[in-house]
Design brief:
This protein starts with a helix and ends with a strand. It is globular. By secondary structure, it is an alpha+beta fold. It contains three helices and eight strands; from the N terminus they run H-E-E-H-E-E-E-H-E-E-E. Strands 1, 2, 4, 5, 6 and 7 form a six-stranded mixed sheet that branches. A two-stranded antiparallel sheet has the order 3-8. Helix content is 30%, strand content 30%.
Amino acid sequence: MIKYPVFILCLLSLSFLKGKQCFAQQTPCKGYYDKELRLFVYTEVDKMPEYPGGIAKFYKFIGSVPLKGVNNELLQSTIFPTFVIDASGHVKGIGIYQKLPKDYTRLDRNMIKLLKTCADWEPAECNNKKVAMSFRSRITLCYQ
């Protein structure tokens, strides 16, 4: 008779331990080593970086500054800036996605200048540690 309760207790304790092991596993963060910046840059993290006041404030900052390289006619242009937000929140390695620097337009170069002046971000986190993360955005500029 005692064999059955002991067996059930063993099964319960094993399932409890198994649940603990699953809980202890940490979220895998992925990334790559950036030779130019000389740091490990994450592409997947537990907590995304955040601009002070949120992403809407970031787009408001971008939209509040007139960019040179635009005629006074109706124009719409989409730019894909890419950059790294380091573990301190600084913006580094600014570029334009899928373009070489030699192919940058005047508008691209002015977007890069503008991004160099933006406020520091709250950095990304992986396993409760602040880390560098690559960030790419789509910005559509409309001029009249």
